[in-house]
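QA checklist item 7 of 12: single-chain prediction sanity check.
[x] sequence parsed
[x] length recorded as 546
[x] structure emitted
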Amino acid sequence: MIQPLVDFRARLAPKEKQALDASGILTSAIRGFALTITVPSSASPVRAPRSGLPSSMTLISRLSCRRAGTRFNARGIDDDGNVANFVETETIFAAPTGLCFSYTQVRGSVPVFWEQATGLLPGQQKITITRSPEATQPAFDKHFENLELSYGAIHVVNLLSNEKQSELELTHRYRHHIRRSPLNYADEHSTKEHELIKLTEYDFHAETRGPGGYEMASMIQQWIRNSADGFAYYLSEEMEERARTNGQDYIIRRPTTILQQEGVFRTNCLDCLDRTNLVQTIISKMALEIFLGHKSLGATQDFWARHSSMWADNGDALSRIYAGTGALKSSFTRHGKMSLAGALADARKSATRMYINNFADKGRQNTIDMLLGRLMGQVPVHLYDPINDYVIAELSKRSAEYTDNEVIHVLVGTFNLNGKTHGLHEDLSSWLCPNVDASQQCPEIVAVGFQEIVELSPQQIMSTDPARRQAWEAAVRNCLNENAAKHGREEYVLLRGGQLVGASLSVFVRAGSLKSIKNVEGSLKKVNTSHPYSRCPCANLPLALH
């Protein structure tokens, strides 16, 4: 809602910006977590023997507003490369000697297009990947290009399960896109040592299932230690300099940067809450140990207990924002062991999450969307800025000099399959490639709908099998690409497909048009819900073409 004011500030001269900031009319707030604790001299690894002053340790988590939302309402990535529950967390240690250590990590949802339905039982919370790999790669690349510009090299730590089919599918897609990222193949001579994205897949649940429990999560250090050493950390120290002014000598103390952090760990699980927070705690501790090792220093148990307590509070705060309750496993994060009371607390939190996610999150999501100005029909705030308004008006008059309009073609086709598969391996060009003018051949967008794509059996109504839709999508795409090759045009990719029982809708676009398409959404509705064998479902796939 304050974006117009932020834009207005960006157009001001430096002195005018300072005056606006001093007025306090524009106040920025961070949603997330911030806490600073005092570390007594007796517990601090860096001590000031003369003064005896304490050190301080700070933890700051900044939650991105660009894909904000609640647990089941905000998942995956958008077309601009923003992911759900994206959080930057910084650990800061400051000593009275002027030394300052800082280490930054990020977390965020798996950066592919996926959704998850709510449900009262865990098995009902089905995960659906909503876009093809080809249609996902541009947004995926935007996300990691932004990370690389902000932080440098990226080491992905994926904590998803290899035993749950839905999480395994996300892992396969994640791995697929990382392998095809341009950050890993900048030139033909690139080697693994020069890759800007590294991937560690660590099945958290499998690794911590044995007698060692959650303590086995620390074994992940052996897989990420090399990156941690290479990324280093931020370090500044106060240096003394002698200066002479008007014949007198002065000693000036000023902070000097010694090291800069050169990369970042990007950690995720399914929700980026419980598993992620525990592993980020381990990474933060590892970074501090590397720093102390370089200084030939050691930390006491009291110091590490304070560090763990801060991270447990951080996990609880971020979990309340996204899921409505404190984090699971926080008892272990806080105390280093899982007690019976902690296990019972986790069970209570899980039950509370189930209620909140099913019955309260819709209202919370509407509030978030309203504050961010994302509701349909919401009128933006307009500020009176005569100079900017005049420039925009004059530019609008001459828009023809710097804008281009392009006519696009859209083909829409529908067919009733009567539950059969006849035609899957036959030529579909008479239907999908009509004999039209050459300028209208190979349209930019092709939308294909099927009715009765499967037999309307009780089993299909209860749990729709997408295999038949995927087979027809492959047949349609092959036909479109053969026609595109014949006319010297680029290939088609599947943008998104949706299915409800026997009705399906799939949208294909030419690869070159992907960069112009945003805000692809999908919804499925049963029109005649009173009849158990409803034949009136509908699928809707709105999108914006820029």
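[x] summary fact logged: The chain is about 35% helix and 25% strand.
[ ] second reviewer sign-off
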